[in-house]
Design goal:
The chain is an all-alpha fold. It has helices at residues 3-36, 40-76, 80-107, 109-116, 122-135, 138-154, 159-177, 179-183, 185-201, 204-210, 223-242, 244-253, 260-295, 299-326, 328-336, 343-357, 360-375, 380-404, 406-431, 438-469, 473-505. It is built from 21 helices and no strands.
């Protein structure tokens, strides 16, 4: 199978399961919002979830990212047995570290909450400590799920890892409407841990079929294992820096109105939908190809592949950001406003969504461009630019939170992501001459112009139908949002269809 067809097939597979996962993710958030709203309980839940999640993102994310190029390098050289030895050593090391960290986190939960959410009231802080102790074991399961996903993708197995996210969401939904009813927010926390365990377990059978066998020991002296740790250190450092905005948001938002942390989280979940649909699927599918092209030092093919990925990203993300910005309140009301989630929560979430949408392209660009650097086994450059963006985020957060409250925290994150993307794009363009040519600029400008036209049309249709939709519940909101989105998509697709087919699709990703 040609490189282009393999990427296209993998992208469609991941996109399908990512769409399924995101739909279930919306149902999950709707179930949580309807049951618990944007309250002190959900603020405590989000703060407690953030602690193990940050540790996982730093350690598990780093190892899962760098083990793919190293595994691919060994496998491409005909040393598949050694490739699995490398993975086994990394797997054992990560599992041992996460078990120790989980036990330590449970013991140090009060201290961790004082660091993450220092402005919580005494009751909310006490609840957050209880939930932190209950949820810390998910650190182990999320780490296993991440590294399983990375190795399955390295073996060109994309369906099951993508489907595992749907399993995660389905278990949380079930927990919210069962355990959440009986045990309250504690039941939701327990269900979250169970969901992550199921996400890891469902990936183990295909991993065993691909050739993985458990081998004891950490294989510290194996050169491939040493290379993984050498590459992982700067990535872990970069990811730890990248987690600082999460910590900044939690610390500052804990001192704002009740529900601020939850509103930011609900809005961020909506922002993640187009990222998963248009970016993560493509980036995941193409990463092994980028790694192989870089390993062969085929810079022409690598440049061509990266250019097409960037255009595909702009094609999907720019209109998504414009559409979300134009329809913030109708979308939030349609998805969340029921049960305990009232009009106040809708307004707070819509404000956060508006400011997050301004930086959606930045988030997408950072995800895609970082893959290019990682494929080149350059893990230091993204770290340096991440550090710059974190400083911008911190300064902007401290300034904007005074005027825009939790919306200022969302806007600060957007400004930081856009800066990070610009720096990565400039640097990768110098590494891959021809990446940032006039065609790239014209394509992006066309996508931006078409997206602005789409946003104006969507907003106009939404406002025109607002009166008719008022008082008609979910049916009225579906009519309002559905017509607005449809009108916008038609106006966007008309000028972009042929241009996209020629510059993003065409003959496919060339493997020169």
């Amino acid at each position: 199978m040609s490189t282009g067809r393999m990427i296209a097939r993998a992208t469609l597979t991941i996109a399908f399961f990512s769409l399924l996962s995101r739909v279930l993710g919306l149902v999950r958030d709707m179930a949580i919002a309807g049951r618990f709203g944007a309250s002190s309980a959900t603020d405590a839940y989000q703060a407690a979830f953030a602690v193990p999640s940050m540790l996982f993102a730093i350690i598990g994310g780093a190892l899962a990212t760098v083990v793919v190029p190293v595994f691919t390098e060994y496998a491409a050289g005909g040393e598949r047995r050694e490739a699995w030895r490398v993975f086994s050593g990394v797997f054992n090391f990560m599992a041992a570290v996460f078990v120790v960290l989980s036990l330590a986190g449970m013991a140090l939960a009060p201290l961790l909450m004082r660091l993450v959410a220092p402005h919580f009231s005494a009751d909310t802080a006490g609840l957050a400590v209880e939930l932190t102790r209950l949820m810390f074991p998910l650190l182990l399961f999320s780490g296993l799920a991440a590294i399983f996903t990375g190795l399955l993708n390295a073996n060109n197995i994309f369906g099951v890892p993508a489907f595992s996210n749907s399993v995660n969401n389905a278990v949380i939904i079930t927990s919210a409407v069962t355990l959440g009813v009986v045990y309250g927010i504690h039941g939701l926390a327990a269900g979250t841990v169970l969901a992550m365990a199921c996400m890891a377990a469902v990936q183990l059978p295909p991993l065993l079929r691909a050739g993985f066998r458990f081998r004891p020991g950490f294989c510290i002296r194996h050169p491939g294992v040493q290379k993984v740790y050498h590459l992982a250190l700067p990535v872990a450092f970069g990811l730890s820096i990248n987690q600082l905005p999460v910590l900044i948001n939690s610390v500052l938002a804990s001192g704002l109105d009740m529900g601020s942390i939850s509103s930011l989280n609900y809005a961020n979940r909506l922002i993640q939908f187009p990222l998963a649909l248009f970016v993560l699927a493509l980036g995941t599918a193409v990463f092994p190809t980028l790694s192989a092209q870089a390993a062969r030092n085929d810079r022409a093919a690598l440049t061509d592949t990266m250019a097409r990925i960037l255009k595909a990203t702009a094609l999907g993300v720019i209109p998504a950001a414009a559409g979300l910005a134009a329809l913030t309140t109708p979308i939030v009301a349609l998805l969340y406003e029921r049960g305990a989630f009232d009009a106040r929560a809708t307004g707070m979430t819509a404000d956060a969504l508006l400011y997050y949408s301004a930086g959606l392209l930045g988030q997408a660009g950072v995800l895609v461009l970082s893959r290019g650097f990682y494929a080149l086994q350059d893990t230091r450059t993204p770290v340096q630019f991440t550090a710059v963006s974190v400083l911008i985020n911190l300064a902007a957060s401290l300034l904007l939170v005074r005027y825009l409250q939790h919306g200022g925290l969302a806007l600060a994150a957007s400004l930081a992501n856009l800066t990070n993307m610009a720096l990565l794009l400039y640097c990768l363009g110098r590494r891959l001459p021809g990446l940032l040519d006039a065609g790239m600029l014209r394509f992006t400008a066309a996508a931006l112009a078409a997206s602005l036209l789409m946003a104006a049309a969507s907003y106009g249709v939404s406002e025109a139908l607002a009166g008719a939709a008022a008082g008609k519940g979910a049916a009225g909101r579906i009519l309002q949002v559905g017509c607005a989105v449809t009108a916008g998509m038609v106006l966007y697709a008309a000028p972009m269809w042929k241009l996209a087919a020629r510059q993003v699709g065409g003959a496919g990703f060339r493997n020169r």
